[in-house]
Amino acid sequence: MDSVRYAIVDGAVVEDLLDFLSEYNPPHSCLYSEPLQPELVKLAPYLLEVTADVENWLNSCTRPWGIYLTTKVTMRILRQHLRKFLQVLLPDETKPVIFRFYDPRNIWDFINVLSDWEKHLFLKNILKIETTYRHGQELLLDELHGIYPPDSRKKQSSKLMVITKAQYLQLEKVFERRYIEDLAGIMNSDAGAVERFSIDWAGKLFSYLRELGITDRRSIDEIAKLFSRDNIHHLSEIPTRYKAILEGTMSPGHYRTDLLLLDVYGEIPVWKRSGLSWG
User: Fold this and answer.
1) What is the pTM of this model?
2) In this structure, are residues 184 and 201 in contact, taking their beta carbons and an 8 Å threshold?
3) For the chain, what is the domain count?
4) Rg (Cα) of the chain, in Å, rounded?
5) What is the β-pairing status of strands 97-98 and 87-89?
6) Are residues 99 and 216 in the same domain?
7) Are residue 9 and residue 77 in the same domain, yes or no?
8) Is residue 138 in some structural domain?
9) pLDDT tens for residues 106-160?
10) Which residues contact 201 (CB under 8 A, 6 or more apart)?
11) The last residue of a domain, from among 142, 163, 184
12) Is residue 204 over pLDDT 80?
């Protein structure tokens, strides 16, 4: 069989995915098992054969839509393999979590923490993996797969991928660094900002909020936007009223954040997720 190029497209990111599939109907299959709950149909990842229409459409997409894979196996076999990695088991957890391995913002960092053997198992039958989001990147896999005998994959001990504690800590550091960079970008995107916000300040704000038990992305994003609006560039510049709400109770972090937002805005702003995570 000749090699075929496929794309995994994230329905949670590409809002017009289903419209495109309906209009052009390229060979495609949802990675989630069917029947799907109605609310998941638009949010699911889909495996598409890269026809000319698909390639043209994805070339015009500026969002982190997903990844390209080249293989000589059928779509059915590829889908069956990829489905194994829609969930992973994290350290100290008994239940698996959803894993969006097809997110181009995360895939290379994930691959980098894997051993050659784990890469061989994860990318079984895949000749090349590519991403085009921001800076294009690709990895050829013939040499890697050639290290291991064809039947070596039978030695895989578990169908569910397990992330070790060391790997998780590596990924956590990478994601934290990238999130802090994103946080500085969020603060600098505020049209009302008089002075640019540094990554160093974003890191200090992140650490401050984490020490207060405010760790969810929505809360941190919204507090950063508020501080940007008020041109706060140092912990010493945080208004006493803000500190009293953020530091003054033992309530959950997200609850204290909402109290602050309600106090300042009179309502809780609608938050649109745009970040890094497992699921």
Assistant:
1) 0.78
2) yes
3) 2
4) 22
5) antiparallel
6) no
7) yes
8) yes
9) 899 999 999 999 999 999 999 999 999 988 999 999 999 999 877 665 555 457 8
10) 184, 233, 234
11) 163
12) yes
